[in-house]
Queue: 4 jobs
Job 1
Amino acid sequence: MPTTRGRPEGLFVGLCTLDVIQLVDHVPASDEKLTAREQVVAAGGPAANAAAAFSHLGGTARLLTAIGSHPLGLGITADLDRLGVAVSDLAADSAEPPAVSSVLVTASSGERAVASTNATSHRLTPPDDLYALVAACDIAEFDGHHMDLAVAAARLARAAGRPTVLDGGSWKDGTQNLLPFIDVAVCSADFRPPGAGTATDALRFLREHGVAWSAVSRGGRPIEWAGPDSGGTVEVPAVRVADTLGAGDVLHGALAHHLAVQGLAVQGHLTSQAFVQALRGAAQVASRACASFGTRAWMQGG
């Protein structure tokens, strides 16, 4: 198994987009035009942002995704390369434009409105070297997009003894097929499995479907977590919120990094104390990311 004594190796499987982020005074009404205060154009998507955070914190990150050879896609790949994220592009031969996320961030609250096609334009076939990619990592993270690929990679990770983390932003078709191969799931309040109406319901559902360690993040409210024999909450540092876009992605990238550095993320070896420590450290990084506009400014200065 890869060593975690040096730079931990993370494999991130999921969505990559081109994010066009505008800072506005308010979300425009129908037929209204307005001038944005600021603009950021960057590679985005849950898996891509998590990989960028993992790399920034000192890990070696590889993103398994679909981007393509369109000029916009080449810009995405260049941006990720600048951030130290290696890309395995399973749509490299496609000349179609990549998924573009149009994001409006309200200056007064940091709340965001997002429109994107996400992964709907690609159905990815697992690559021939998938096992090698999995075997080379210390930890694998999945955002639930490109589900067939995610299930194939998570199955191999479980067989190879590599710990797996799920970014549960929302319940997606096929999530039930991924859960049996997930060791740690950290979900948003929008993650609503069938029959689950509360965070407690979601945690119970995950446990019943084989996930040993799970948590639900709720913005600035405490993170609720559950393990095999215990549970509790982790406080989230209070910050002046400038932009919540990508905060959950950063949380997952930081969590994966903490777990990989600890070398304790394999199911059966993670303790409640270590899980809480990893959640607390990840929450600190995610809160720092919320204090500045865009998905990159938090990386400046350390």
Note: The chain has one domain: 9-296.
Job 2
Amino acid sequence: MGLMGKLVGGAGSVAALGEAAKGVAEVFVPSATRRMEYSAEAQMAALRQLGEEYQHPALSWFDRLVNGLNRLPRPFLAFGTIGLFVYAMVDPEAFAFRMVGLNAVPEPLWWLLGAIVAFYFGARETHYFRNRTVVSPFAASPVAPEENAALEEWRRG
């Protein structure tokens, strides 16, 4: 028997001491193997989530029409704003005349318009936020903690 075996108390004790040192080392430097396993689990969870997107039944023509109409306000707002810039360059006098008309709109009406636009986009964002599916890589398959012989011996003792 080697010197370490005699000092510690046998081959089983040396193995337990080695496992304890491994456990302590993993506290400070995570296991690369465990990190790769978690990465693979996260990728599989992401693939499952993306696969669920295509499992919905086919939509009717009315559903497709309403979905198309729901997608129109943002492009209209964006292209309309760009159109205002083009209009200002093409016909500055008519643009200035219309802007004077906008200046005559009372302030509470602007607040109302801002609230309607904010609630429209806020409601859409809230809808998508509430109906999202959160897939955790840890919820898919629970991983049992590794056994630590030294810790178990300490708990028993």
Note: Residues 61 and 67 are 10 Å apart (CA to CA).
Job 3
Amino acid sequence: MISTIVWGTGNFGRAAICAVDAHPGLDLAAVLVHDPGKVGRDAGDLGGLGRELGVRASGDAAVVLATGPRAVVYAASGDVRSADVVADICAALRAGAIVVTPSIYPLYDHRDDRQDLQEPIRAAIAEGRGSLFVSCVDPDWTDEMVPLLLSGLGPGVDRIHCQEIVDYSGYDQPDSVRYLVGMGEPLDYLAPMIAPRMPTTVWGGQVRLMARALGVELDEIRETLERRPLEASVETDTMGKFDAGGQGALRFEVQGIVGGEPRIVIEHVNRIDPACAPDWPSPPEGQSGTQRVIVEGDRQIAMIVVGAAPAGGDEAMSVGRLVGAIDWLAGQAPGFYDALDVPLRPAAAPELAAASV
């Protein structure tokens, strides 16, 4: 069993606790939390499992890392505290841990050597002989491996279009939804997530990864942006009121340009009210979000993924990619890994194995 800790218990961390608990090769050894009110709570409670796991949350990272965990699922947000995230991950790497995380967006493509933050991370890997695999912000496995797998089903590829369509109205992340993304804020408020070049910082790594896998050279990466105001105020159960006139819908693209044309495109369509921007693509009725992948070439291949999880629960579909990589990484040399390095693996299914005996 691989001793594993989950660091952070937000939406992604809760899903990570469930995934580690379900994996037959992993042992949930500890949970690290930032909120003092969560210290001492059982991991099963924090993960929403409805049962206790006998693991109490700690707020002391140094003490937990001193126990020598083999792996760390780093689930704390990197949206507004990137320097702290790098410091945390370096501490885990120096302790010799395998670290899997979605929290350092610029390192989705770690071969992009323009990122200065690589230097301390590579030093920590060399010192502690740990490993780092960065992937899967949101459910963005649909922005890297799935399009590449679909591309292999046809004789040629002219264009890849990845699309995420999300209704935020059921989310419980007011700081991120209001101030990071800008929902409900005046249209003259430039939210950090849509500031110039920020979408490329977050999603450009996936565009570069796909280009590298396809063997094409990008001319550049471009961005497009559209915003729509709320026509009427809306009240959400989890985040309160969003006033009329504030941003109600947001649509942007990160485009990989090849031969002067957008050939690898990641698009996001986000709303705080399903009625806002009705002419834009929407999730299926009754769903909070959907992902679409369209591969165009000699034939068109399309895939639609609709999350059955509650609003904000798309993390359950992406955390499996990271948690499922831990036992593979345990058999590899220490180092820096990306989505093209780590193979896609079937889920561990002990119930099915037992049923087949």
Note: The two ends are 22 Å apart (CA to CA).
Job 4
Amino acid sequence: MKKKVLMSLRTSAVCASIAVTVNPLTAFASTNRPALQQKSIALNGKIVSKPSAVVHDGTTYMPIWYIMQALDNANIHSTWKSPVWNLSTSHTPNVSDLHVDNGSSSIYINGTFVQRINQIVNVDPSSGNQTTYMPIWYIMQILNCLGIKSQWNGTTWNISNDTQILLTDYEVSSPSAVSGQQIVSYAKQFIGTPYQMGGESSKGIDCSGLVQTVFAHFGISLPRTAADQAQIGQTIAKSNLQPGDLVFFNTDGQEISHVGIYVGNSQFISATSSQGVQIRDLNDPYYWGPLYVKSTNPGI
């Protein structure tokens, strides 16, 4: 039996957490094209398109035309004239803390430059034409600057312009479907994987990406960010932690900025920016212990 979780989406214009890891602009030759995977774009839980996406170095890139159409439905209009993408919206962005990175494409909001990101150029199978693909994870961060929440579960990108949304895309499997030890055993296969912000594979992964990927392997869909994952399931006491539970930390001044999977014996596994996926002591008095915020059981 599945249960649906009602999630309150807190609009936030804080962009300090954006630290875009750029990849080089890639124009794939016809003999060296990456495999395309069908993904979905949804608005307020309703699928609006199913484009073919490029997954490159652990990051998902979607065709910009489909992204623009979805944003248009959310009242964010845009124009694309390579390499400039200009977003037009009534939302007031807060970019005071935004760190501008290097990249091949420039993003403007209401005519004001806000960020650079890299793009991929590849053939769109629907049209047969060369198409620009944008890294979806980094677009989510730009939207967050506008106070617009979106979630990515590895298959569906759901944009919300509502204050609340019933997360039908994030249904939690019944407790009998998978054990906590199964979750832990699978997570350990990622030990040594390098850290990559926005990464979703064994080539590179971030903390919430690891949690989402591990649980998705067992058919349990979770939101993409640590802050959103912290809203799923039942909050439990630290003393009652069981393998497979989630542990959350404040590592950069935000309420929730890091997540890991409890493995037992006061240890947890997570993707750290310094050493990649590692097992660490939850009660480490010099770092993790003081940064611990809460624990949850996500429904296993």
Note: The radius of gyration is 19 Å.
